[in-house]
Structures are given as C-alpha cells and as structure tokens.
Amino acid sequence: MRDAWLVGSAGRTPFVGHLRGARDLGRVRLAWACCVAGTAGVEQGWEAAEAARDVFAGLRATGDARDILTAACAALAGLDPRWLARGDLTTLLVATDGTTARAVASGLAGVHVGDSGVFRSIAPPGHPLLGEPGAPDGTSHEIPLAEVWVGVPAGVPFPKRDVAAACGVRPA
Amino acid sequence: MSALLDGKLDGVDLRAELPRLLAAVRDAGSAPLDVLFAALAAKDPVALAEVVAGSRAPGGAHVVRAALPHVNVLEATLSPRGLYPRLFDLAAEAATDVLAVAAARHPAASWLVPLSKKAEFFAVGLTHLLAAAGHPSFAAVCRAHAEAGHIDGLVFAAAETGRAEPAAALLALDIDAALRAAGAALDRDPTSPVLAHLAAVWGPEPDALVVRLIPGLRSRAAADALLAAARHLPRTTATLRAVLRGMV
Lengths: 172, 248
Prior knowledge:
The structure holds two protein chains of two kinds.
Chain A: E1 3-6, E2 18-25, E3 28-36, H1 42-57, H2 65-77, H3 81-84, E4 89-96, E5 101-106, E6 108-115, E7 118-121, E8 141-143, E9 148-153, H4 163-166
Parallel strand pairs in A: 1-9
Antiparallel strand pairs in A: 2-3, 3-4, 4-5, 5-8, 6-7, 6-9
Chain B: H1 2-5, H2 18-26, H3 34-43, H4 45-53, H5 61-67, H6 71-74, H7 80-90, H8 95-105, H9 112-119, H10 126-132, H11 138-147, H12 151-161, H13 165-170, H14 175-188, H15 194-202, H16 207-210, H17 220-229, H18 234-246
Helix pairs in contact in B: 3-4, 7-8, 8-9, 8-10, 10-12, 12-14, 14-17, 17-18
C-alpha cells in the first residue's frame, strides 16, 4: 500500500467533494487524495470530484515522479473554472518510484506519514507543502517513503484515533 | 346549549362561562362543532385553546378534528411544541390527523420525531418525512429519524420521494437499510443523486458499498442510471453490466 488519504471535515457529511485513488504510471505510482468544492453542497461536491477523477484517469506516464506531479497539477488547473474559482480545492499528490517519494499539496495545515498504523507529522509550520487551497503549482518536494501519506486540511484536527475512518477509508 | 354550538356568543362572557362551554362541547356528541370553533377563533382564541387543548378539554376525535382548521389561531396562544402533543393525546383515532397537520406546518420540528413514534405503528416517521421532503431541513429530519431508529419510515420515504437523504442518514445506523433506501430512491427516480449522498457520508471510495445496492434494484431505468453515474466505480460498473444483460 502506498496511498494518500485526506482527513474529512467535521459534521454529518465529512466527505463532500472528496476523491482518493492511485495509479501506476510507468515506474511511478501516483497516489492522490483531494477535496474539490467541499463547501458547495453534496451534489455539486460529487460533480466536482467526478471531474477531478476524470483528470486523474486521463494522466499518462510522462517520465519520473517530478514530471508526473507536474503533469497532474497542470491537469488539475484545467478543471472547470466553476470549481477552481471558488478556491475550494485541497490536494495531496504523492509520486513514488519505490525508492523516493515526492509530493505536491494545497490547502493543507498538516501532512503525516503512517507505517503499520503509526503516524507522525512530517510538515512543521512553514513546510512548503502547507499552504492555501487551490490548484497546486506543480513544485514538488521530497518526502519520506511510507505506506500512507495523510493530508490534514486547514481547520481540521488530526484524528486522535482511527485515522483511516476519519479519512473515509473503509475495510474492503 | 344549541345556541353555543350555533356560534351565538354575543353577550356571553366566555371566560366566566367556560365550564358551560366545555360542557356543551363534551355533550355535543356528533353535532357539528365547526361553527362554534370558528366563532371562538374569531372572538376569543384563548377560550378556543381552553376548549380544545386545555387541562379540562373533553378531547375526542370529533373535537380535535373540528379544531384542526383553527391551528393557526391556536398556535398564537400555545407553542406548537405544546399544542400538537396535547391535541395528539386528546385525539383518539384522529391522532394521525394531528400528526399530519403538525408535520405539514412544522416540517423542521424535532418534537415531531417522538410524536411520530407515538402515532405511527407502521413506517414510523413517514408522515413527517414526506412533509419535510420539500423543506431545507429534510436531511436533518432524516438524520433525526435515523437516530430514533425509524428505519422503515426512512426506506418508505426514499421509495415515495426518490430522495437520497434517507439512505445517507441510515448509513450510520444500518448499512443494509441504507442500501435498501438507496435502491428504492433510484427505482422511484433514476436521477436521484444517491452516489453523491452516500459518498459524502461513507468516504471517497464508495465502490464496495454501492455494488451492494445492485441486487435490490427493481427497474432497468434505475440500473441504467446507476451505471451512468458510477463511471469511476469499477466493481459497480462491472456488476451492473452483467446484471443489465439479464434484465428486460
């Protein structure tokens, strides 16, 4: 497992606009966890997330981890302006070739890595992966390899227990 | 007596004559009360409230049914939270009429949830849920009934309205019931946004959940619509394609 997760918001519908997935693109595995139009309501959030799923489904193997992250960010920037204009896009994209991992992100207040159910923060205040929501600019940063990388959106606490459930990750 | 029932209240001190008024209503049998209640509503809403919902109100289905057209006046005297449960307790076989009026007038009211439990023996909550279906509070009403365990009411509400909120509300309580509600909503309205509502509660990868609602679908239109909506859910689309080949 080398997956990206995103912590859901508080409330009864914590995963409005959320999408998550991973693909092998050549020798690179790209994992993503995003929230698009999360404040737009359940149905618009789903529509926006579907549009973002289309973006990730359309990616092609274009080189190394850095190249693929750049291409993914460019594709996200092409999302319907309805979604981008809101500034309502939170992302964590991680590309790994098995020996190193690189990430781009937007709208995050924290990034954690998890191995065997143990999580630790890798992004202290001021870390370049932390910042405002919106389409990420494609500048990637090396991060530790891990089983799972967890993005914590601004305004959302990192869960004290059951991180997977807080990210909407359900047993198969 | 008959003069009161005929609504002839001129010269009657309604507060002083309240015992006589109560007795007239109690003894009215099946005689119409609509003229008296209309006159009371116009002249003294407090007296009307005493007669139909006060501590000495005689109650009965006949009295309560005659009072229901005047609930707008009664609500000016008694809070809805106090009025309707009191009318309900006095209404005998008209209890469901009280629930229907209360739900129509106050679809967002939380006190309708326990009142539904007292009034409905089958599909508890259905009256309230149907009344709230056109109100912004519908999702919250669904959650309140889910928390009260009103599973059948929510499933029937989904089947009646085609709305996805009952299924989403049930997810936290009973996954199988949530899937029944989702399937029923799709059968009623194939355009129902069940995937959006389920995913908003369940999480960003609802494929393993959604594939489980397929066996409950009754119509080809629902299956076709789900297939179109689930293009990023590979297990669901593969199963639906296999199912659709066998559907007429």
